[in-house]
Sequence to fold (188 residues):
Amino acid sequence: MTTLSLPVTTERLVMRRFTPDDLDDLYAYQGRPEVARYLYRQPLTREQCVRTLERRVAATAWAEDGDDLVLAVCRAGEAGVVGEVVLKLASARARQAEIGWVFNPEHGGRGYATEAARATAALAFDGLGVHRLFARLDVLNTGSVGVCERLGMRREAHLVENDLDGERWGSEYVYAMLGREWRADPAG
Fold:
């Protein structure tokens, strides 16, 4: 894989590595039940966010299966983190990566998730040489379904009641795109 050039910038956003100073912003969305419900887990406590942030700050590798790159998403020219994007290396040999995003609902409806996901897909395909990029999401997460579709990803699977979220069985969609498809239409 290739060395990353960070931060990644778009017209309105800056995506950079997390720093210890991002704790309050991280907890502001990771601690919310309406965010955690789509992640098949309970909201994170402040202490869990401290540990999560420590791992993110220390992580430098993206070369082996399971390695992930998690970037803080900030509005250009403004302090504070509005969300995050992640690339997880699912298979180094097959050059496959999973893309994901989590945003503070207070910043929803402005297109930040789509803009950040598009830049992250470009990073995956053009910067890291990924062959196939996929996303897994709860079928009830209509916002993320829309992001996948705006990126031009195709729905490859509908997994029915494949995960237990507390007492609720959750179903999941899998969306994907190949590098050659991205290069044919990178605007999605």
Notes: The chain has one domain: 8-184.
